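--- STAGE predict ---
source: upstream dedup step, 1 unique chain passed
mode: sequence only
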Amino acid sequence: MASKISLSVFSDVLCVWAYIGQARIDEVAGNFADHIQIEYRFCPVFGDTAHQIGVGWSDRGGYAGFAAHLHEVVASFDHISLHPELWQHSRPTSSLPAHLLLKAVQSVAPQSLEQVLQAIRAAFFQRCQDISRWAVLRECLESVDVSVGAVRAALDSGVAHAALAADHRDQQAWMVQGSPTILLNEGRQKLYGNVGYRVIEANLKELLRSPNAGAASWC
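--- STAGE serialize ---
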């Protein structure tokens, strides 16, 4: 049997575009189930939200301006919703605790990773909970029946930390600019931002038609 095509998805759990784009990843997973293997990686776009939003949006209304921008963006999509007080009622300090938890889940219960990712996004975007807090992340694990003890062990052992460090290392090596970014063909094909399903599909079909395309440079 031919090996499956690797599709790496770099994202930040606090990124609304990754939240929007998950439906496209899910569709790709369903339509190409026999041909691809999806790997979730994480990049810290919102690793320091006080800087990313508080400073980065200081001349555009700060947190209130950023929240208004998100609501404007999401108004064009009917498959997701945002809490009306997003970034007002609750302000996570960092996406890193959630990313670390997800790497722990990836190591001990990989089959549940997407469910936990979905639970974390729902906790923040729909219920306006602070997903930088362990209590909230623990509730997310429990909501999809993932062993809290097993995840805690992966955190205590440093396994999750090493995996997250690997994500950050590869992000730099592959020059991943932000969230979400889809990488194919060992990083030779990069789809960044709000990319439509048909664009992802076209890239996958081309790789399936010519699996060795791009393996060698013509330069």
